[in-house]
Amino acid sequence: MIITNKHRRFWIPLGVFLLTIWFVLEGENKLAFISFFLLFGYIFFIVLFRSETLEEGVDYSNGLPVAKDESLPCHTYYGEELNFPDEELTEILTKHFPYFNSLPADNKPIFLKRLTRFIAEKTFKVYDDTVFREMPVLVSAAAIQLTFGLEKYLLPHFQFIHIYPQEFMRSNPVLCLLEGNVSGRAINLSWKHFLEGYAKPTDGQNVGLHEMAHALYYQTFIVEENIDKNFRDQYSNFRTDANKAYHTEKTIYGGLYSEYAEKNFQEFWAESIELFFEKPAAMNRNYRQLYASLRSLLKQDPLTSNQ
Ligand SMILES: [Zn+2]
C-alpha cells in the first residue's frame, strides 16, 4: 500500500493558481510573481517525482519480500512461545484497537481465542532494535478483524510476519519504498504506518487491513488451500459490484477511492476493505450494492452490528 492523495494533488495547485489571479487583480505583482513561481515549482516537482512515488506490492512470486538490508537488526519470535494471557491481549486491544472495543461483549472472547491461535501459528520477525509486545498482537488482530465473520481465519500460507519500524525497501522489480506488502510466505508491514491506520479509524486508510485483504485473496484464489467456502463463493458477487464501482471511480474525479486503488483490481479490492471498515456509511451511500456484497462476503456489518 502506498500513500497517494489525488485530492491534495489537485487542490494545492488550484489554490495557488487562484491566489496568483487574486494577486494580479489586486495589483500585487510581486506576490503574483512569487505564487506563480511556486505553482510552477510544484508542477515541476510533481512531473519530476511522479514516476518515483512509492510502489506497492502484491508480489505474488515466491521471491524474498524485500531487499535484504544486512544493516537492519532482526529479532525473531515464534508465536507458539509468546503465550500472551487474555488480560494482556485485552489491555493492548482496548488501548489501540477500536474494532475490539466496539464488539458486543459475547464476541470478545471469540476474538481473543482466534487471536491467540493466529499468533501461535506465525513467526514474527522484527527489523528493529526496539520491539514492542503490541507488534505481534495488533498485526495479528488486523487479520482477525478482517476474517471475524469467516470460518477460516488462519491464513496458513503466510507463515511469516515481518515488521519494519518504518517504510522499507524492495529491490525487485524496481527499487522502491513500501509501507506494506505481501510477498512469498510473508506479510510485511511498516509499524509506523500500521499504527497510523488504527490511530485514525475513520479516514479510510489502514495498511494492516489492506495487506490482510491481499493475503486473504492470495490464500483463497492463488494457493487454494484452507479455503473459506462462503468467502470463495460470494467473491464473484463482490467482483461484479466492484467492477461497476471501479469503472465509476475511474471516470469521476474526487471519488471515494484513492488514485492508487484505480491501479488494478487487486488494489481496488484491498482498498474496498479499508473503506468498508473505516468509512462504511460513505461506502454504503456511494455504492450501496458493493457495500451489501462486502457485508455478505465478510459476514459482518460495520454499520450496525459492531461499530
Ligand atoms: Zn495493495
As a percent range, the share of helical residues equals: 40-55%
Q: What is the number of E strands?
A: 8
Let me know the largest β-sheet: 6 strands, mixed
Residues in β-strands, percent:
5-15%
Contiguous helical run count: 13
Shape: globular
The helix/strand class is alpha/beta
Order of helices and strands: HHEEHHHHEHEEEEEHHHHHH
Q: Which whole number gives the mean pLDDT? A: 87
User: Can you list the strand order of the major beta sheet?
Assistant: 1-7-8-4-3-2
Q: What is the gyration radius calculated from CA atoms? A: 21 Å
Span from first to last CA?
25 Å
Low-confidence stretches: 1-7, 49-67
Number of domains: 2
Write the layout of secondary structure elements.
Layout: H1 6-25, H2 29-49, E1 58-59, E2 75-78, H3 79-82, H4 86-96, H5 98-101, H6 108-121, E3 123-126, H7 134-146, E4 160-164, E5 168-170, E6 176-178, E7 180-183, E8 186-190, H8 191-199, H9 207-223, H10 229-251, H11 265-278, H12 280-286, H13 288-298
Parallel strand pairs: 1-7, 3-4, 4-8
Antiparallel strand pairs: 2-3, 5-6, 7-8
Helix pairs in contact: 1-2, 4-7, 6-7, 7-9, 9-11, 10-13, 11-12, 12-13
Bound molecules: zinc ion (ZN).
Polypeptide structure, described:
This protein is of the alpha/beta class. It has two domains: 47 residues; 173 residues, no CATH class. It is built from 13 helices and eight strands. A six-stranded mixed sheet has the order 1-7-8-4-3-2. The protein has a two-stranded antiparallel ribbon with strand order 5-6. α10 packs antiparallel against α13. The longest helix has 23 residues. Bound molecules: zinc ion (ZN).
